[in-house]
Each structure stands twice: as C-alpha cells, then as structure tokens.
C-alpha cells in the first residue's frame, strides 16, 4: 500500500519511559488530527455492506493517542554503539474518524457517495474492523522514522552517560 500520513509534525508527547537496564522504551503520543492518504483495493463486505472498488483512500482521525513500545539491542559499529529496535508494538485510540474511498463501484458516484456516508455513520464499527491493519501501518511509519535517526545517531548521544 502506498501510504502518506500528514500531521505527524504536531505530535505532543504525553509520556516517555526508558528502561536502560532492560533495554525497553515506551511512549504515548497525542495528535489532534492525522490524515492518511493511500490506495485501497476492496471486493467483499465491510460490516454488512457489499463493497467493491479500487482507488484513492482518504482517512482522517481526530484526537488520536498512539502507544509505542519497543525493546532494543545495541549494535557496535567501529567502536560506537547504535540502537537496533526489536519486538516493537503499536496500539492506538481514536475519538473521531472520517473515511472517503474514491472510485467505489467502478466510479458510480451515487453508490460511492452512499457507501461513504454509511461508512462515516458507522465509523466506530468500521474502525474496529480495520484497526489491526491501521496499527500495522502506523508501526511501519514510526519504525521507518526512528530507524533513520537511530542508524546515524550513536546511543551515547541519545542517552548521555
């Protein structure tokens, strides 16, 4: 899935816990709003609704709290230790969601509009159905960001001795 997320720069860290002895990190981060844009492919049922389509998906979450937990190991590269994240987990809660799936039913505007209306009226149930996949996407993005940082910033510059 080709996915982009907007709103990450407005993160507010609620908690951050570091256990250096057991090599564990956890954090809770709040976002007023996150906008996800990507492509979707669906042919089946969502809740009770038969649905078919392929196209652009726009999903907005409001009042979202992401909980990120990870363990890490230290890898030595030329005498310098770097963090390598292992056993990472993501969960989240959201208080608002809006879905807009483009090109449903081969571009039938009426069916697409009615389906999106149904999805948004039943967003809580829909969200429960999709939350594992969404959590996986969030985890992938978070790990990509953190890995870029941790690959170049030594451990002793992150956690001063």
Automatic annotation (TrEMBL):
Gene Ontology CC annotation, any one: extracellular space
Highest taxon above the source species: Eukaryota
One Pfam short name: JHBP
Name recorded for this polypeptide: Hemolymph juvenile hormone binding protein (JHBP)
Lineage, top ranks: Eukaryota, Metazoa, Ecdysozoa, Arthropoda, Hexapoda
């Amino acid at each position: 899935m080709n996915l982009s997320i907007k709103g990450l720069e407005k993160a507010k860290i609620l908690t951050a816990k570091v256990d250096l002895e057991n090599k564990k990190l956890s954090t809770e981060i709040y976002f007023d709003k996150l906008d996800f844009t990507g492509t979707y492919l669906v042919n089946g049922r969502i809740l009770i609704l038969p649905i078919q389509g392929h196209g652009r998906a726009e999903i907005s979450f409001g009042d979202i709290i992401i909980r990120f937990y990870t363990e890490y190991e230290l890898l030595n590269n030329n005498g310098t230790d770097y963090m390598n994240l292992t056993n990472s987990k993501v969960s989240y809660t959201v208080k608002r969601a809006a879905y807009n799936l483009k090109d449903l039913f081969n571009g039938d505007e009426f069916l697409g509009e009615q389906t999106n209306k149904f999805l948004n009226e039943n967003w809580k149930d829909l969200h429960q159905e999709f939350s594992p996949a969404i959590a996986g996407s969030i985890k992938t993005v978070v790990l990509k960001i953190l890995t870029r940082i941790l690959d170049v910033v030594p451990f002793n510059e992150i956690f001063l001795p």
